Amino acid sequence: MLITNYLSAKRSSERGSHRIFPVSLLASALISMVATNAVAQATQQEFDPALVAFGDDIPEVLTTTRLRQPKTRVPGTTTVITGDMIRDLGIMNLYEVFRLVPGMVVNFVGSHQPVTTYHGTVHYEQRRMQVLVDGRTSHKATLSDMDWETMPVPLEMIERIEVARGPNSAAYGINAFLGTINIITRDPADTAGVETRVVSGSRGYLRTFGSVGNAGPDLDWRLTYEKRKFDGFDYQVDGGEQLPFRDGHDINSFTYDSRLKFDEQTDLEIRVGMVDGTKYNDKDKSGELNPFTDPDIDVRDYYVQSKLNISTSDRHFFHVMAAVENFNRRQPYTVVFPDEAVVLPRKRNTSLQTRQQS
Prior knowledge:
It is a single chain. By secondary structure, the protein is α+β, with helices and mostly antiparallel strands. The protein has one domain (51-339): Maltoporin, Chain A (Beta Barrel), CATH 2.40.170.20. Helices cover 18% and strands 39% of the residues. It has helices spanning 2-43, 83-88, 169-172, 346-357, and strands at 60-61, 69-70, 77-82, 104-109, 113-118, 129-133, 136-137, 158-165, 179-185, 193-200, 206-215, 219-230, 235-238, 241-244, 249-261, 266-279, 297-311, 317-330. The strands form five sheets. The protein has a seven-stranded antiparallel beta sheet, with no helix packed on it. A five-stranded mixed beta sheet has the order 3-8-9-6-7. Strands 1-2 form a two-stranded antiparallel ribbon. A hairpin with a 2-residue loop joins strand 13 and strand 14. The longest helix has 42 residues, at 2-43. The chain is globular, with a radius of gyration of 34 Å. 22% of the residues are buried.
């Protein structure tokens, strides 16, 4: 009897404890939720954009979706490199900027021809990546290639460079399979006055830059000139022998940028540029044609661009752009055919001589 009463009392105490546990768990959960809400309300503050960029505001990105959006809201991976950063780092060539972009590969082929690609998926032809300068394509569609050495973009005139890393063909066409590079230059109103710069270095390196412009109530304009010259490497080694290496360049570029303001909501941008010079090519780095002389490339490029900007409000605007470009490359040289390419009909001549003797 005592054992039975003990078991029944134990079962009743266990049932009571099972009833108390869920009630205590629910009460603790409610108390924690109330405490969490109270703490969240007490610590809730307005979003400070300066916290993300260590003192700077979040940059607006135009390239990824063709819309002006903060970088944190862009549906894609985008790298923004400012012009001040480029000049502070002392970068001397435009293609060297892309060493700062994660996943970008910068290398050289042939006669020191720079190649820039994303994740190293191309070699000579830099296809599958769109390159824009102020919205105008600089990619040579006929050759499916990019010529970074002859681009008329002085480093002093770069406002920022936006790199959309990843496929963006929906916005920029089939060539933007790997990514899109958009180089945005400074507004003529921000470069009013006179600016000059001369940089000289070893191996015949020389870069001369000059800019003059003015900002007015109706017209902002800027005229720039840049000369880039480089003799290339001193020599190349072939079979243990040091041979001269012709892989430099001598490029001159002229650009004119202006903004004609009709009113506070409407303005017209006009951009004109011309490139003239020579790209040196070594005869031993020019494929299987075996040129007898150095196959230097004469460069004759120009472009004309106009863009009409209309702002309907502080947050809405649209523009209409038209551009004409011409890429002219001439490469005259003499070709020497190798001996194995020439086949003489020796058997036929032998048979003719036999018939004459008979």
